[in-house]
Design goal:
Layout (H helix, E strand, L loop, with lengths): L1 H9 L4 H14 L4 H13 L5 H20 L3 H14 L4 H13 L3 H12 L4 H17 L4 H12 L7 H13 L2 H14 L6 H14 L3 H14 L4 H13 L3 H18 L13 H14 L3 H14 L5 H16 L1
Helix pairs in contact: 1-2, 2-3, 3-4, 4-5, 5-6, 6-7, 7-8, 8-9, 9-10, 10-11, 11-12, 12-13, 13-14, 15-16, 16-17, 17-18
Length: 333
């Protein structure tokens, strides 16, 4: 039947008769790869292949490729899958099958080319898996980590923060020691889904921004975001205070410390209160010194010392400092 079909098609130009012979061949042997391939080629060669026809022909070549793989004829399967994708570049099943075949044969360069071409034919939502797979391929098989990074970044624009693409990008940026990129990732993460970003990562971003990037403003924003979720986080509070010290903005610094003290005093006592930590008393001292030495505000300094006396009755410093300030005030008068 296959030989008769070829004669009818090539010598007699009798497409309908050739198709009947191929149908008979497939009925006799449904697993006949050559007959399926010939049927797809016959359909294309008839000159009547519309868009729908191209799709059907691609499906025929894909079916033939599946049979060829099942029969361990990977060379034929490869050619048929390529033929199917040339007709329908967005043929999902053919693309997956070719990707599996290239993986099995460890043809990594060709697999990368397949992913790169395929991405252009799918919707943004469907491209997520391709970006992720291509990124992993570039990173682990081809040692092209900068290109892998670009793929992961594309995938993060589709996925909610904290997903696999975000984690892979994070790990790669750490490995590359790309501090600018890592801080940017955490910033974007914090803006889109702050509840999924840990405090430790925000603090790390703040330290990197200040110490490695010399970007004080970005560091300050990260410290502030930690304080929004954990008002008494010691590292974030000190880091944010340091921001205003570096700017020599003593008014903002005093306001920040006073707000922290007010929050603590409103919580009252108890083992979980910030006031239960003896070192918290130093915030009162710092506030008093800023008022007196930086702002020349003796009334503010007195208020700070009085607050310390109320919060820590056993601290000896407020009594001496209050007496000293009163004496200084009398001398100024």
């Amino acid at each position: 039947h296959l030989r008769l079909a070829r004669i009818e098609a090539e010598q007699l130009d009798n497409i309908p008769s050739a198709a009947l012979h191929l149908q008979a061949a497939l009925k006799a042997n449904p697993d006949d790869v050559a007959a399926l391939r010939a049927f797809g080629a016959l359909y294309l060669g008839s000159g009547k292949a519309s868009e729908e026809g191209l799709t059907k022909a691609a499906d025929v070549f894909f079916r033939a490729a599946k049979l060829a793989r099942a029969q361990n004829d990977d060379k034929v399967a490869y050619g048929l899958l390529r033929r199917a994708l040339s007709l329908r570049p967005d043929h999902h099943e053919a693309g997956n099958a070719l990707a599996e075949l290239l993986m099995a044969q460890e043809k990594w360069m060709e697999l990368d080319e397949l992913y790169a071409a395929w991405i252009g034919y799918v919707t943004e939502a469907d491209s997520y898996g391709l970006w992720l797979s291509r990124g992993e391929l570039l990173e682990t098989r081809l040692a092209r980590r900068e290109e892998a990074r670009a793929c992961y970044e594309q995938a993060t624009r589709i996925e909610r923060p904290g997903g696999e693409a975000w984690q892979r990008l994070e790990a790669l940026l750490v490995e590359l020691e790309d501090h600018h990129g890592l801080v940017g990732l955490y910033e974007r993460w914090s803006e889109l889904a702050p509840e999924t970003l840990t405090t430790d990562k925000l603090l790390y971003a703040a330290r990197l921004a200040r110490e490695d990037l010399a970007d004080e403003e970005r560091a300050a924003v990260c410290f502030y975001r930690v304080l929004e979720r954990e008002p008494f986080n010691a590292e974030a509070f000190e880091g944010y205070k340091e921001h205003w010290r570096r700017k020599a903005n003593w008014s903002h610094l005093s306001g920040l410390i006073l707000y922290q003290i007010d929050q603590a005093m409103q919580q009252g006592g108890g083992p979980q209160s910030p006031l239960a930590r003896p070192e918290f008393a130093e915030h009162f001292v710092e506030l008093a010194e800023i008022y007196e030495r930086r702002l020349g505000d003796l009334a503010g300094a007195l208020d700070a010392w009085n607050r310390l006396a109320a919060a820590y009755p056993n601290d000896w410093r407020p009594r001496d400092q209050i007496a000293r300030i009163h004496k200084r005030a009398r001398m100024l008068d």
